[in-house]
Write the structure tokens for this entry.
Amino acid sequence: MIAVSFALPTESSDLVGLLRDRKSDETKVIRGKINNKDVAIFHTGVGGESCKRKIDNFFSAQQPRLLISSGFAGAARDDLRIGDLVLAENFSDRQLLFEAERILKNRNVCVANLFTSQTIVDSMADRDKIAREHGAAAIDMETASIAEACASREIRMLSLRVISDSPREGLPAPPHVLFDMQLQRTNPTKLLFYLLKHPVVLWRLIRFGSQIRKARESLTNAIADLVRGL
């Protein structure tokens, strides 16, 4: 069985739609098949704290032959665009990375370092600093915790992220408005009050929704290719 992790259902919804014989269990793991290969999709939540707890719960009941750690990421470099794929060299099993490069050779894939942040990173200055200090092409909030959990259990892992925002096409509103870490979702009241004060943000949200759809489609197609080929 191949396990695929995402932070949130917003990232996984298209892949879930591809599964045949789809079913969910009491732990909210979604199972099905792609090309007759067993796939288990689960969600870690956003950030290291939620991720560590949920991946431990997943591994207490599952023993996948490999795990694809996936989801959205913010670009730390100007040359990455919305929908571009990043294979994280610093978090991936070497053999899986080699095979993934072969399978995804016809897609917009960058093999580079990924940086796992404790907070949502939006400003250009912060992105530039991370790129310089860590040699990272992209930023996420879960992969380091997932890699640690896989390493401790000797489970091979491949890290694949898709660019959903960039220095040029950033987040449409402050991170604390877009996502409440404690609630693990957007707080609609907070977002509504922000929109009332900053109505121009509505158009940015619409544009951001388009970015998300483009990123999700790119990621879904790549993961489906990987499942078929690995």
The domain at 2-171+211-229 is CATH 3.40.50.1580 (Rossmann fold). The first strand starts at residue 2 and ends at 6.
